[in-house]
Write a structure and sequence with these properties.
Blueprint: H1 6-23, E1 27-36, E2 39-48, H2 51-55, H3 60-76, E3 83-87, H4 90-112, E4 116-117, H5 123-133, E5 139-144, E6 151-156
Parallel strand pairs: 2-3
Antiparallel strand pairs: 1-2, 4-6, 5-6
Helix pairs in contact: 1-3, 4-5
């Protein structure tokens, strides 16, 4: 079970709330623990009507906001707490879409025997695909290409 200092959670939530106010965005911050890749992670989910602005294109604004909040929280406390910021469950739904994409690619590769090249995606999305298919012994996933065009390839493990 993840041990999280409640004072740190309150502090990070305050930093998020203050930053939202300075940005002119109305929202509430809710926390939850979620298992990701075999470990529990603190998720700070912002509920807001300004989700499009907060998320940005392909989640770019959300990643920048999370980076800013991590920097601000480290300045306030020496204790480092791993957390992920989400907006209206965008990331949670994105993970489900990526898992569905991985499932579909795996089925297609098994059915056709041909490799499946997925569209370019950022590193954290590629990691979700790789992790989701890691236990599929008959499949292999590899990333190739240069950022920002790096892609995941799903193929049969026997080299086909």
């Amino acid at each position: 079970m993840l041990e999280i200092n409640n004072e740190i959670v309150v502090s990070v939530k305050e930093i998020i709330s203050e930053t939202l106010i300075k940005m002119g965005i109305t929202g509430q911050v809710f926390e939850r623990l979620e298992e990701q890749e075999g470990r529990e992670v603190l998720i700070l989910n912002i509920k807001t009507d300004d989700a499009n602005l907060m998320i940005g294109q392909a989640g770019d604004n959300l990643l920048a906001f999370q980076h800013l909040i991590r920097l601000l929280s480290r300045k306030k406390s020496e204790e480092v707490t791993l957390f992920i910021i989400d907006v209206n469950d965008y990331r949670k739904e994105k993970v489900e879409r990526l898992r569905s994409l991985a499932r579909s690619a795996a089925l297609k590769v098994r059915r056709t025997g041909e490799k499946e090249v997925l569209l370019p995606m950022p590193a954290y999305e590629r990691r979700i695909i790789h992790t989701f298919l890691a236990d599929e012994k008959d499949l292999l996933t590899v990333s190739y290409g240069e950022e920002p065009e790096r892609k995941v390839v799903v193929k049969l493990a026997d080299g086909k």
